[in-house]
Amino acid sequence: MIEFHETQLQIAQICAEIEGNDKTLMGLWDLLDTNVEEQEKFDHVTSLVSSSLDEALRKGCLAFEVIEQTEIEVERLNALKASKMKELVLKRQNELEAIYRDVHMDIDTDGARQTLINLIESGNVELSELLSSMDNQIANAKELALSRRDVLDKVEKWKHAYEEEKWLEDYEKEENRYSAGRGAHDNLERAEKARILISKIPSMVKSLTSEVKSWELERGRSFLYDKVKYIAVGINVNLLDLPNCSVFTLLSF
């Protein structure tokens, strides 16, 4: 009777070990997006998770070759896990960087990538937790990017006005600008539109300044454009009087 109970206990321990492997196996499949065909090869093993001891014995899930097969598959998938972790994490990092880049927010991309790689290679991080953290970062970045759109739209309008002002200055230096021809007519029209647009620059600067101040007040932080802080120029400043400055330097973002 004692031997019988010891045998039962050993079997139960083996079942527990295999069940642990099975759960690990299924977790790795999910993590690595293993196709259904590959998973079906282990149906007889994974069924143990929801089976009783008697059912496991009847299904032959305790056979040595079954145990060995499961362990080999777990080892194989664990070997793939590190590279897959790096792939998934860096894919999210790429997405995060693209969001920031699109709205002229500067981040230390090289430093962030190296930190992630070191974390993965250390083996001291749960991928699910790391991915969840990065998903949160992406969600926050999208929200922040959206909040910057109104300011950035005004920057683009001012940039366009500045470029047209530079073009108009060069155009008005041309002696043959009134000569006949389709191109000359188009340039005359552009010049007229440019003058109208340039007349709006003071109000553009005023509106932009107001938008930035409102954003900073709401967020409690400086509005940076590619790492540079905004400092409004006077609304009567002629951008062409500052030839060594780009529109973004003028904005002092």
UniProtKB/TrEMBL annotation:
Gene3D superfamilies registered for this protein in UniProt: 1.20.58.1520
Record GO terms (molecular function): microtubule binding
Tagged with keyword Cytoplasm: yes
Compartments (UniProt record): Cytoplasm, Cytoskeleton
InterPro entries, A to Z: MAP65_Ase1_PRC1 (IPR007145)
Major localization class: cytoplasm
Keywords, alphabetical: Cytoplasm, Cytoskeleton, Microtubule
GO CC annotations on file: cytoplasm; microtubule; spindle
One of the GO BP terms on file: microtubule cytoskeleton organization
One family name in Pfam for this protein: MAP65_ASE1
Keyword Cell inner membrane: no
Family in the record: Belongs to the MAP65/ASE1 family.
Protein name: Uncharacterized protein
Organism: Linum tenue
